[in-house]
Amino acid sequence: MPTSIQDGDHPSPAAVSAAGLRKSYGDKTVLDGIDLHIPAGSVFALLGPNGAGKTTVVKILSTLITADGGQAQVAGHDIATAPDGVRAAIGVTGQFSAVDGLITGEENMLLMADLHHLSRSEGRRTTAELLERFDLVEAAKKPASTYSGGMKRRLDIAMTLVGGPRIIFLDEPTTGLDPRSRHSMWQIIRELVSGGVTVFLTTQYLEEADELADRIAVLNNGTIAAEGTADELKRLIPGGHVRLRFSDPSAYRTAATALHDITRDDEALSLQIPSDGSQHALRAILDRLDTAGIEADELTVHTPDLDDVFFALTGTTVPGQPKEAVR
Ligand code: ADP
Fold first, then answer.
1. 48: Cβ below 6 Å to ligand 1?
2. Does residue 170 share a domain with residue 293?
3. I want to staple 303 with a disulfide (CB 3.0 to 4.6 A). Which of 18, 54, 189, 234 is the partner?
């Protein structure tokens, strides 16, 4: 049963909206009815284990392949009836990189400028600006095949930006990158968003979604298993609790009798109460403390992390590098 914690009446204009997207390959149903609403200027992360169908969603929305069913608008253009409008408004980078390894980074950029019909001088100016912005000036005259993974991804994004897209699809932009390159990619993504671009990101990395995305959808078994902010998703699964700490032992004891379902730590004078961390649940705890006339010295809400959510929703442990490596 899909869990939807999305607002009912989307007030902000959508950069991407989709309803009931379906796609099968032979007998295999890859997407079994996908709904999306991504406000302009936000970062959306489509999170899912390998093979979940993330790339398939990106390919459909960027008009590289057609859906078997459902409909979608990207930048206000229907993917089925106005694919040219969609293509003019978007940039796509990631697993199907456009970088040509035989020519230099600069030549790749100039080729892109040609494809976008920029004049020679405009093409040169845009290329120089973007090479500078993506820290590729030194490497600009070297064949792209000599670039590191991180440099290739940066060049790929720079090439995408030549056309001035309003919406960028980044398909697993940091898969296989070392931690430093990953952080530099995160910084690039943040800068794109602060420049007003909408980012549609696919990732297998929970940290990445947690770090960057305004909203996250978890794709599993062809459907969106849950959708919301990182905090909303964390609240969906059990394991959250509120911890109250006291310095006054008598206040601690009074609280321990006033509250239900507690786990005591008599040494630390702290109480743990299972809770989803919602406003309603917190108010109930605070009301009980008020009625008993006591005040805690510290109140902290602990929500489970996205790892727990991912596991609970997909039954899959997080693939890829160990957690420490991406921090
Ligand atoms: P993800 O990006 O989440 O790793 P994909 O969208 O690449 O997943 O793939 C989803 C599923 O669809 C996989 O099982 C994959 O093997 C299958 N698939 C993707 N493209 C094709 C294709 N052209 N023909 C047959 N099966 C495909």
1. yes
2. no
3. 234
Q: 240 with 275: CB under 8 angstroms?
A: yes
Q: Which residue's CA is the nearest one to ligand 1's atom 25?
A: 25
**65 and 166 housed in the same domain:** yes
Q: For residue 50, how far is its CA from the centre of ligand 1 (angstroms)?
A: 9
User: Which residue, by CA, sits nearest to atom 19 of ligand 1?
Assistant: 56
**Six-digit token string for 210:** 């947690």
Q: Are 152 and 177 in contact (CB under 8 A)?
A: no
Is any atom of ligand 1 closer than 6 Å to the C-beta of 30? yes
User: Letter for the amino acid at 239?
Assistant: G
Contact by Cβ (8 Å): 296, 273: no
159, 122 Cβ separation under 8 angstroms:
no
CATH of residue 275's domain is 3.30.70
Give the Å distance between the CA of 27 and the centre of ligand 1: 13
Domain span including residue 293: 241-302
Our count of domains for the chain comes to 2
Tokens 């709904």: give the residue: 35
User: For residue 28, how far is its CA from the centre of ligand 1 (angstroms)?
Assistant: 9
Q: Is the CB of 204 under 6 A from ligand 1?
A: no
Ligand 1 centroid from CA 256, angstroms: 53
Q: How confident is the model at residue 7 (pLDDT cuts 50, 70, 90)?
A: very low
Q: For 86-106, what is each residue's pLDDT tens digit? A: 999 999 987 657 789 999 999
DSSP E strand boundaries for 142-283: 167-171, 198-203, 215-220, 223-228, 241-245, 263-265, 270-274
In a domain, 192, yes or no: yes
Residue of the CA atom closest to atom 5 of ligand 1: 53
Where residue 309 falls among pLDDT bands split at 50, 70, 90? confident
The answer to whether residues 293 and 190 belong to one domain is no
Residue 171 and residue 90 in one domain = yes
pTM of the model: 0.77
* Mutation choice for ligand 1 from 27, 30, 31, 310, CB with most ligand atoms inside 8 A: 30
